[in-house]
Design a protein that fits this description.
- The chain is an alpha+beta fold and about 500 residues long.
- The protein folds into two domains: about 350 residues, Outer membrane efflux proteins (OEP) (Up-down Bundle); about 80 residues, Outer membrane efflux proteins (OEP).
- Helices cover about 55% and strands about 15% of the residues.
- It contains ten helices and ten strands.
- The protein has a four-stranded antiparallel sheet with strand order 2-5-8-9, with no helix packed on it. A two-stranded parallel ribbon has the order 1-6. A two-stranded antiparallel sheet has the order 3-4.
- A hairpin with a 5-residue loop joins strand 3 and strand 4.
- Helix 8 packs antiparallel against helix 9.
- The radius of gyration is 42 Å and the shape is elongated.
- The two termini are about 75 Å apart.
């Protein structure tokens, strides 16, 4: 090694000369000179810089630290060698890709089991309304009967004139009857009809709440899937940086400029980066599967890179209408409707003490005209039927007590739903401010970690730093990059949650 290398201020020049001499073939008598204008020690291939994550719209961009604007004199930015590794390859693409929010709404409208189930319950409640109406409407029935006498005797037959013979004569008779019953006083049936209509309204409110929850689940699954994809990408960038640092340390160790422990420390960092990549890939697969389930599919679903997540909250407004009070939330309205149904159930017992009055009319045809009152084959009667139930064994008293207990339970549930709704709305609004503040802090920490890692690499190559400092700075940079990716999408998640916390949705 030339003597002048020990007299210069930047020992990195010696390392660069030795590295180039080590990389050249044995027949090369002189090391390759650096190009004019390039700094010493810049012989290695540069690593592409990591593109900074852009915060969501409305978030203030973090300010760059002062050290980044004015790097110290003589500090040369190291250029790490290029590396290749199987884990650097991105995860395989999903079999299905979601392109727009409108496509997501169409999928859950068609495939969501929860929506199909609640809509079937709404149809049941509406059908129950028609069932409750039936006892209040006229009832028309037709009956027919055939009678054949197996045992006969001898006696006077009903003939003109009377005669002796086998009786009854004829042995086979038949009849047909058409009956009409018209309720004139049916308070129990009339009140039950109103209760069934209230129950159908409650079922519709339940359906709106399920729709709101389904939209919230899809929005959350979309953000989670994109977050997982971004974390996997950041993990691979960190692994690539760790592998490049490991390769650099191996070269320095081969030249005698680094110790074995420097290489081992870097290998530990590479192992941690590999573990993070594996975990991030698994998170991507799980997020895709969760998105598929939210869309009503058993297959994984991914997100197209062209989707605009900053417009997700605005797109959600096309399906959801913001409200300005807690009582307008579908779950609160549904709980109130269930209380009204329970109140009517208690009141319905009072109407069972009332009598019922029906108009009855029957048209009957007899094959044997001698058994009718008018002596003709056809008869027609009209009358009224008054029914007054005096004692039923205590059924009505027990029914009232049961319904009162059910009413108390519904009122308690309504109070709990209101409390939960108020807390959820308050937390959702506060979560937006907290997420934005965390993103600003993390953005500043990321910039500091980037500059610290850069200066640490410069100091390490200049001989004034240690491998521990290099590994620690890389670890802190990786942690801040991952945390920034998480906080970036937490802002979006919080904004969507704040919108859906007090909204009425229609799928």
């Amino acid at each position: 090694m030339p003597k002048r290398c020990f007299s210069v201020l930047l020992p990195v020049a010696c390392a660069a000369v030795a590295s180039l001499a080590h990389a050249q073939p044995a027949a090369a008598p002189q090391p390759q000179a650096a190009p004019a204008g390039s700094p010493a020690g810049a012989a290695a291939t540069p690593q592409p810089p990591t593109a900074p994550l852009q915060p969501p719209a409305g978030t203030a961009a973090p300010t760059a630290p002062a050290a980044q604007a004015a790097p110290p004199a003589g500090a040369t930015e190291p250029r790490l060698p290029e590396v290749s590794d199987p884990l650097l390859a991105p995860p395989p693409p999903p079999p299905n890709v979601l392109r727009t929010w409108q496509e997501a709404i169409a999928l859950i409208r068609k495939q969501s089991s929860a929506l199909q189930s609640i809509r079937a319950r709404v149809q049941q409640a509406e059908a129950q309304t028609r069932i409750a109406l039936a006892p209040a409407l006229p009832q028309l029935t037709a009956t027919g009967a055939v009678t054949h006498h197996l045992l006969t005797g001898e006696g006077v037959r009903d003939t003109d004139p009377p005669s002796l013979g086998t009786i009854p004569d004829p042995r086979t008779t038949f009849s047909a009857e058409l009956g009409l019953r018209v309720p004139l006083l049916a308070p129990t049936a009339w009140y039950a009809l109103g209760t069934a209509r209230e129950a159908a309204e409650a079922a519709r409110f339940d359906a709106r709440e399920v729709e709101r929850q389904q939209i919230a689940a899809v929005a959350n699954a979309i953000v989670t899937a994109v977050t997982a994809e971004r974390l996997a990408e950041v993990s691979r960038v960190s692994l690539q940086s760790a592998l490049s640092t490991l390769e650099l340390n191996k070269r320095r160790a081969a030249l005698g400029a680094a110790s074995t422990i420097d290489v081992l420390r870097t290998e530990q960092e590479v192992s941690l980066s590999r573990a993070q990549v594996v975990a991030a890939d698994e998170s991507v697969h799980r997020a895709r599967e969760a998105l598929g389930l939210a869309l009503g599919s058993s297959e994984p679903w991914g997100i197209t890179p062209s989707i605009r997540l900053d417009q997700l909250a605005l797109d959600a407004r096309t399906s959801c209408t913001p409200e300005n009070r807690i009582d307008a939330r579908p779950d609160v309205q549904a709980a109130e409707a269930h209380v009204r149904v329970a109140e009517r159930d208690v009141k319905a017992v009072d109407y069972t003490y009332w009598p019922t009055l029906e108009a009855v009319s029957n048209v009957t045809y007899w094959s044997n005209d001698r058994v009718t009152a008018n002596g003709e084959n056809l008869t027609w009667t009209i009358g009224g039927l008054l029914t007054f139930r005096l004692y039923d064994g205590g059924l009505r008293y027990a029914t009232r007590d049961f319904n009162r207990a059910a009413l108390a339970a519904q009122r308690a549930e309504l109070a709990e739903v209101r409390r939960q709704a108020a807390v959820e709305v308050s937390q959702a609004l506060r979560a937006v401010r907290v997420a934005e503040a965390n993103l600003e802090v993390t953005a500043r920490s990321r910039e500091i970690a980037r500059e610290t890692a850069r200066l640490t690499r410069v100091a390490y190559l200049n001989g004034s730093g240690t491998s521990f400092d290099l590994v620690d700075a890389a670890r802190r940079l990786r942690e801040t990059e991952l945390q920034f990716a998480i906080d970036e999408f937490e802002v979006l998640r919080a904004r969507v949650a704040a919108l859906l916390a007090l909204a009425t949705c229609k799928v």
